[in-house]
Amino acid sequence: MTVPARIGLFGGSFNPPHLAHLALARLALTHLTLDEVRWLPAGAPWQKPAAALAPAALRRDMVTALIAGEPGMVLDERELHRQGPSYTLDTVHEFQSEQPDAELCLIIGQDQYARLNTWHGARELLRRVKLAVAAREGQPVAPPAAWADVSHTAVVLPLPRTDISATEIRARCAAGATASSLAALVGLPVASLLEQHALYRGQLRA
Ligand code: ATP
User: Fold this and answer.
1) Which has the least CB within 10 A, 80, 127, 129, 162?
2) Does the keyword Nucleotide-binding belong to this entry (predicted)?
3) Under DSSP, is residue 43 helix (H, G, I), strand (E, B) or coil?
């Protein structure tokens, strides 16, 4: 009898991907004893403004650079190739038809958990995946206020506080930060790509 695969689904705009993402994915892999963590860059992150979104190919390349050589980390491009908004529920349906026995675990930070009730098909998502949530920037893990009466469980991932956000990195790029100064937030391979492609250097609207 084969043991069902345990797959972590880690979605985001990854605009750009950074070291807090990597810390979260590494922790999820070990804490939840996953076989792999699928990094799923969103093609069209429907809940985030599109103005400052780097091209999909570059976000993919930055994720590739960030996870290079990392055991258990796998880039999954499916949402980049899908037309229309990137709904996690569609991705879950795809995984469940490809690997019906796999156990799926959705890995998110508290900012996303707090608004999970607004996600497309959120209640169905709860029935189909296990949730794993990390506190973020001082915000402890807590369900959406609107879900006071919605029974569900979430595993808390004990991520050490890491105050890194893509928003801050984009602001630093816009202010002309060099690759060496960005490396502490994104690692040198991603920092080099940010510099090489002069990403987020223009007027930032979001
Ligand atoms: P932005 O600043 O543009 O909103 P972000 O830094 O939140 O971006 P995303 O790609 O939106 O990056 O995040 C993907 C996932 O990683 C989300 O579930 C988010 O909550 C989580 N995450 C990102 N940064 C952190 C962090 N510093 N601590 C914990 N979780 C994080």
Assistant:
1) 127
2) yes
3) coil
What is the CB neighbour count within 10 angstroms for residue 183?
18
- Atom of ligand 1 lying closest to residue 169 CA: 2
The model's pTM is 0.95
- CATH number for the domain whose boundaries are 6-162: 3.40.50.620
Q: Write out pLDDT tens, residues 22-61.
A: 999 999 999 999 999 999 999 877 776 666 899 999 999 9
The closest residue, in CA terms, to atom 28 on ligand 1 is: 136
- Which residues are within 8 A (CB) of 6 and not within 5 positions of it... i.e. 6 or more apart? 32, 33, 34, 35, 102, 103, 105
Q: What are the structural domain ranges in the chain?
A: 6-162
Q: Extract the tokens encoding 117.
A: 């009730």
Name the residue with the closest Cα to ligand 1, atom 15. 12
Determine whether the shortest distance from the Cβ of 14 to ligand 1 is under 6 A: yes
Cβ of 12 less than 6 Å from ligand 1: yes
